[in-house]
Design brief:
Length: 751
């Protein structure tokens, strides 16, 4: 059967289990009538039959799937729900309940019985109960031990057996019987459910065979590794034999598999050992070889650690044993023994997300309390003997996650000014810049032409004229006040929040936008570390850079730590779009390339917003946008048809990006006009619309990057004399709009 059909069939089983769960929830907790009991018994029988079919189907899926771990998780999730509901059903069907108290006669009987028992006066060692966490590798061992100690012990009451069983189960195994009510009559049900869950012969065989194949390679000869190979081989073969597998015929196969895991030296010794035999060795001979080899390595290691030196004066040998207690050696924990002191998961402290979310002072305190190296945040050694490099932000030997600004004060100024980064070329020249000029004819108010010289500076952001030329041309001078706040946006996608990722993004920015003279930033460690890296690079290579522009460097200005309100200029720009990005990007999952494309298209939308008119000409509908400061012209886009309003998950990958762009445009264009129209409480009279003013018109049907602008050609006052409606001349013609759908661009009234 094809893989997809198997998935659909498994979905049918899940639906049946959901129906059974809903049926159980509708039943009363007690006092079921005969009809309900009969129906429950029938449904339970059907579910037990269905589980056998599900088990066969899921096993087939696990064999066909390339991602077996995902299939194991699906099985575990299904079986947790199945066994929980089956246990509830059996508890409801259980005949009678045990009394909550024990009668006096039973207590006396127990006491008499206890007095009749024989007692030994030899104190035996405490026998710890076995524990089982749901790993199939340990099920057979747990099952046999538990049965011999607890389950078959008739002197232990069922309620105590139930208590022992619950105490012995951990992790996923404890969930199997978690929902069963703690009563003596339910112990048999709990044990039966647990046995049905883990007495799966096919899974057990597959698990133990997989353990043999997945044994880790031994990279260096070690007695501990060889003995571990012996133990793993014997353990899994005994388990497979218990499961009825013909392991007596597997010697050649097992020897071949395990010998490939040996280190180079031991493997060579094994090949020499085989050549001395007249026939191919069996498994017993292979294990004996490994045992002898491990004993030899232990003996050599003992001789190495205990050196005897002859003392001629005393005519004796002195035992010079190495003392490891007074020295700190670097010990690397085994991968399976790694335990995070923060969250107790299987990773080092520096990989713990909870540790990374702490502030720096709390990190330092936590690392000190955890007895780890403050340089690499690993256990087993101290800073003095750590082989890893120092902090990437300074030269002190501590981890970068523990770096504070106080450390940088010890090594000098961490934030250098651009004046500190100079070159021999700039010292020998005064930095004079020559600009080109041009002679032009300029008409005055009467139409007469006058010769004037223009100074051409393509880097200037202002236009100036001398008072002499202003008088010749007869220009009228008047005071004006017009403020234009330009905040162009540049979005970069980075893979992580490290110094290297920021430097890569900064290099992409410089390549497309040009090298900035000054960079303002918050005091994040990512940006501070990147600035230190740039400073060291420019200082090291200043003699070899020919261009004076490059030698001027980049001046970084950092706001104080933990004061984001100091960066109000850029924080306001981020605030205006951050919530929209969250809304848009949460609609679907994107690849790195798709997300980068989407962000750049959103950047174009943000930089296309109108700021102010380009002129006061009533027929000119052009406007100034942030894109003019980046490109010198407005942004254009390739026209695309409107994407259908359907579930984004049903769209092709390419159309998903266009859907996100159009969705962002619709929300941003509407909210941008609403943002410009925000008013505080009306306490003073506002300004009315003026004829000739350039206004931005709200229109929800326009494609991305196309803003509808127009000039006010007529106003229509209301009965109170206030203007609330205007006629606007646009590229589409003259339209009438109310004041709540238009917004005058920011230009002073005197203009």
């Amino acid at each position: 059967m094809p893989f997809k059909e198997l998935i659909k069939k498994r979905g049918s089983f899940k639906a049946k289990l959901t129906q059974f769960t809903n049926f159980i929830k509708l039943l009363p907790a007690s006092d079921l009538d005969n009809f309900q009991l009969a129906e429950l018994e029938c449904r339970l029988s059907v579910m037990e039959t269905m589980y056998r079919d599900f088990d066969a189907l899921q096993t087939e899926l696990e064999l066909l799937s390339e991602d077996a771990e995902e299939m194991y998780k699906d099985r575990e999730h299904f079986e947790q729900q199945y066994f929980a509901q089956v246990s509830r059903a059996r508890a409801l069907l259980a005949p009678g309940r045990a009394p909550s108290s024990v009668s006096a006669s039973s207590v006396d009987g127990g006491a008499n019985h206890g007095s009749a028992c024989k007692h030994d006066f030899v104190r035996l060692p405490k026998i710890d109960l076995p524990h089982f966490n749901g790993d199939y590798q340990h099920w057979l061992e747990f099952r046999d031990t538990y049965i011999s100690l607890i389950h078959n012990n008739e002197s232990i009451q069922d309620i105590n057996k139930f208590h022992y069983l619950r105490a012995a189960l951990t992790d996923s195994a404890s969930l199997v019987i978690k929902s069963i009510e703690f009563q003596a009559s339910n112990y048999a049900i709990a044990w039966q459910l647990l046995s049905e869950r883990y007495d799966n012969q096919r899974l057990l065989i597959n698990n133990h065979v997989q353990a043999l194949f997945n044994f880790e390679f031994i990279h260096k000869e070690s007695s501990a590794s060889l003995r571990n190979m012996i133990d793993v081989t014997n353990k899994n073969l005994r388990a497979l034999g218990t499961l009825g597998q013909p392991i007596e015929h597997w010697d050649t196969l097992i020897i071949y598999i395990m010998s490939k895991k040996l280190d180079t030296v031991t493997n060579r010794q094994w090949e020499e050992y085989k050549n001395n035999l007249t026939s191919y060795p069996n498994l017993e001979q292979y294990l004996r070889f490994l045992t002898n080899r491990a004993d030899l390595l232990d003996t050599l290691n003992d001789n190495k650690n205990n050196k005897h030196i002859y003392n001629p004066n005393a005519n004796t040998y002195e035992n010079k044993s190495k003392n490891y207690n007074n020295k700190n050696y670097i010990t690397k924990p085994k991968p399976n023994n790694i335990k995070c002191p923060m969250c107790s998961q299987d990773h080092y402290l520096f990989s713990c997300q909870s540790f990374r979310n702490l502030d720096i002072d709390t990190r330092i305190k936590k690392a000190s309390e955890s007895n780890v190296c403050m340089n690499c945040l690993r256990p087993g050694h101290i800073n003095k003997h750590c082989k890893l490099s120092h902090c990437k932000y300074c030269s002190i030997k501590h981890n970068s996650l523990l770096h504070k600004e106080s450390y940088s004060d010890q090594t000098g100024n961490n934030i250098a000014l651009s004046s500190d980064i100079t070159s021999s070329y700039s010292n020998n020249n005064q930095g004079h810049v020559l600009l080109s000029t041009a002679l032009v004819k300029v008409a005055d108010v009467a139409g007469q032409l006058h010769t004037a010289r223009l100074l051409l500076d393509n880097g200037s952001t202002s236009n100036f004229v001398t008072q002499e030329l202003c008088g010749k041309l007869g220009l009228v001078k008047r005071s004006t006040s017009s403020t234009v706040s330009v905040r162009a946006v540049h979005l970069e996608l980075v893979s992580d929040l490290t110094k290297e990722a920021f430097l890569a993004a900064f290099n992409r920015f410089i390549s497309r936008r040009g090298k900035p003279q000054r960079v303002y930033s918050d005091n994040g460690t990512t940006f501070v570390g990147a600035f230190n890296e740039l400073s060291r690079l420019l200082l090291a290579s200043s003699d070899s850079i020919a261009s004076d522009l490059c030698n001027e460097g980049i001046e970084f200005k950092f706001i104080p730590a933990y004061t984001p309100h100091f960066g109000g200029i850029w924080e306001a720009a981020v605030k205006s779009i951050k919530h929209l990005l969250y809304k848009v990007l949460s609609l679907t999952h994107l690849t790195y390339e798709e997300l980068s494309t989407c962000l750049i298209q959103i950047e174009a939308i943000l930089n296309s917003r109108p700021l102010t008119p380009l002129s006061t000409d009533p027929s000119d509908l052009s406007y100034l946008s942030p894109a003019h400061f980046l490109l010198g012209r407005p942004l254009m886009t390739v026209p695309r048809p409107l994407v259908a309003d359907v579930n984004i998950q049903r769209l092709p990958r390419f159309d998903r990006i266009e859907k996100l762009r159009q969705h962002f445009w619709q929300r941003f264009s509407n909210e941008f006009i609403s943002l410009l129209q925000q008013r505080t409480k009306w306490q003073t009279t506002g300004h009315d619309l003026k004829i000739g003013a350039l206004v931005l018109v709200r229109d929800g049907n326009l494609p991305p990057l196309l803003w509808l602008l127009g000039r006010v050609v007529a106003i229509k006052p209301g009965s109170d004399g206030r203007v609330r409606v205007a006629e606007i001349l646009t590229k589409k013609g003259t339209i009438t709009r109310a004041y709540n759908n238009i917004c005058p661009l920011p230009v002073s009234s005197s203009s």
